[in-house]
Automatic annotation (TrEMBL):
It is found in: Cytoplasm, Nucleoid. It comes from the Bacteria. It comes from Hyunsoonleella aestuarii. Binds to DNA and alters its conformation. May be involved in regulation of gene expression, nucleoid organization and DNA protection. This is Nucleoid-associated protein GCM10022257_23060. Belongs to the YbaB/EbfC family. Homodimer.
Length: 106
């Protein structure tokens, strides 16, 4: 029984290392999002760090419209990045989970 516990602890440490490696890799996965008319473009990585924002000059003339575009486009980009992030990390975590009876349904 003690050997099983040690084996499980080793597997958890291995999974933790894989999660950290996945987080680093997600820094290199980029999500591009644009407003419906293409006047605002945002790039962020799958860890939800903004990497670039491109603003068409016409938006600079209307502060309120620019703010609305930023909110809408950033929220869409963050939602996409979150989906990628969660899917990748869940796959790694599931891979490292021990087989516990009844837990495979979660």
């Amino acid at each position: 029984m003690f050997g099983d516990m040690m084996k499980m602890m080793g597997k958890l440490k291995e999974t933790q290392k894989k999660v950290e490696e996945t987080k680093k890799r997600l820094d290199t996965v980029f999500i591009d999002e644009a407003s419906s008319d293409g006047q605002l473009k945002i790039t962020l990585n799958a860890n939800r760090t903004i990497k670039a924002i491109e603003i068409d000059d016409t938006l600079l003339e209307d502060k309120e419209q620019l703010e609305d575009y930023l909110i809408l486009t950033l929220n869409k980009a963050i939602t996409k990045a979150t989906s990628v992030n969660e899917a990748e990390l869940a796959a790694v975590a599931k891979e490292g989970m021990p087989n516990i009876p009844g837990m495979d349904m979660l």
